[in-house]
Amino acid sequence: xxxxxxxxxxxxxxxxxxxxxxxxxxxxxxxxxxxxxxxxxxxxxxxxxxxxxxxxxxxxxxxxxxxxxxxxxxxxxxxxxxxxxxxxxxxxxxxxxxxxxxxxxxxxxxxxxxxxxxxxxxxxxxxxxxxxxxxxxxxxxxxxxxxxxxxxxxxxxxxxxxxxxxxxxxxxxxxxxxxxxxxxxxxxxxxxxxxxxxxxxxxxxxxxxxxxxxxxxxxxxxxxxxxxxxxxxxxxxxxxxxxxxxxxxxxxxxxxxxxxxxxxxxxxxxxxxxxxxxxxxxxxxxxxxxxxxxxxxxxxxxxxxxxxxxxxxxxxxxxxxxxxxxxxxxxxxxxxxxxxxxxxxxxxxxxxxxxxxxxxxxxxxxxxxxxxxxxxxxxxxxxxxxxxxxxxxxxxxxxxxxxxxxxxxxxxxxxxxxxxxxxxxxxxxxxxxxxxxxxxxxxxxxxxxx
Length: 450
Known about the structure:
The protein is an alpha/beta fold. The protein contains 19 helices and 16 strands. It folds into 3 domains: 6-134, 3-Layer(aba) Sandwich (Rossmann fold), CATH 3.40.50; 141-313, 3-Layer(aba) Sandwich (Rossmann fold); 316-444, Orthogonal Bundle (Helicase, Ruva Protein, domain 3).
């Protein structure tokens, strides 16, 4: 149940205050009033208001004085209602950040429409601020939600690793949260106040990889008008996170090995090496030993990055985490989309727990987001779940009987994305689509680009 909206009327005309109070009270607003600037200040100190209607002329000063110094209400929560229509006065008010400027005599419909718009805008701003706190980039171990024993062991091991500052390799399937864990390790380490630079190695074109990682001097190539430090220098004294390290070209693997051995990098067109102090955390969803046997990954580099190792288990091996994670994603979507979903009924929770989640936490998050946008009630029921979740565990023939064309297309696109490591160009070619068409289909199916 949402609290009643509180509005403060700051107006020295008693008759007008009473008129405004009556009009707003009839529309179910919780209305308070002040006849002087001093009275308004006292009320603003003691009470949180959703909005204030502010006159400009008072016996004890100008209404805009309330906005000076330590203000007790966000300026965008104030609508100025003034008896003067001077443009400069309105400009001064708007420069101070007030939401809007209305002139007397007050038009009731315009005032009510302005109040409604102001409340809507500020609700969205409040939601955005709360959402930033919930999913902020400053990841910590405390923000990693889990209840399973296997994840408890991973987190405890991660805390020990964080203090060592040694090179670390995180393994695990796609969507298990390797970057989230890497950020938590960095934020728990002595380097927490220094940069954390994430790099998706699969997304760096091979012909640009050397300059992207190690930088270049001015004049290194056509168009290089000024120097670029590269990702390693940007991470100086901090941490660089090399996600999908198995995708690094062999040439860059050799140069990365030199960095690990000597703490030196050579920027393109530079005659001297630069000494760096960077912690490396690498991650992969592939079997590096198998790649070594096939000539796709350097064995000496493997042993250099595998000083400390963490393995993030797939979601199907920590069933106890599924519902707590799903409930957190509901909470985040409630904030983002003004929903009031409270949770799952017993059958829906059982089906979610039974499903094996091949896309792991990322798939769970996307699924809950999709469901949350479509559900109108307060409870997610079995009927709201995707077909693949409802039919999981049935025979293939039974499952295919219930697949919709949308489900078939979504699953086919997801399979192609996974096989190409979310390389959009390669995936589009594999599916026989253009890139714009693939992007549109991904948007239609609520598939997020990595």
